[in-house]
Amino acid sequence: MAGQNQRLNVVPTVTMLGVMKARLVGATRGHALLKKKSDALTVQFRAILKKIVAAKESMGETMRASSFSLAEAKYVAGDGVRHVVLQSVRAASVRVRSHQENVAGVKLPKFTHFVDPAAASGGPSNASPSLTGLARGGQQVAACRAAHVKAIEVLVELASLQTSFLTLDEAIKTTNRRVNALENVVKPRIENTISYIKGELDELEREDFFRLKKIQGYKKREIERQRANAKLFAEEQLAEDLALKRGISVGAAANLLVAGGEKDDDIIF
Question: Which UniProt keywords apply (predicted)?
Fold first, then answer.
């Protein structure tokens, strides 16, 4: 993966180690939340898909029924009913209202249909729909109107479902990209950085321990050297004193001391 062998360029300190651990905790929590969001959106996505399939199946039957009802109205009332309807209608009675529904932080557009009471009752601009086809074929015209209103309702529902479907599809893709980025790039990179900082801190600790051991060894050798120098100086002093006492050379007195011919009480004045 992209982040398996990568790490952040940071200074390996204890403070930075704490920062990286906090980032890892935040990335883990964010990954869990985004995963839950993706699951919730997927469940809603599948539910909407089932509704779309059912709506499309019913739409075929509804559109077929509305087409047959229109043919029946034309057959009974004649082709002139079309001109009567066009002249009497000035405003739509079935209208569409849009609103938004929040699903796991994603705003889905929803469309709902409603009937305008003023237009449906034949207000100032429309003629009363009950008067259309009064001469003949009024029942078929009313049935045709009801069938087309039903078709409009199905179309509005299908448009709402498809719009929500596309919005959810895009939201799921975006969420899954973020989940994959956190799982395969961000978290491994932070973990590699933490491992690098820990390794560097351990190496610094080993270097400090080795440095202390070297300093202790140097101090020990220095103490031993000072003791050896002090012992050598004391022996030289003893040899000089013995040489003065015996009237011999310093070298001979040193040989006597090395050979053990003289004791300590013999050279004490």
Answer: Ion transport, Transport
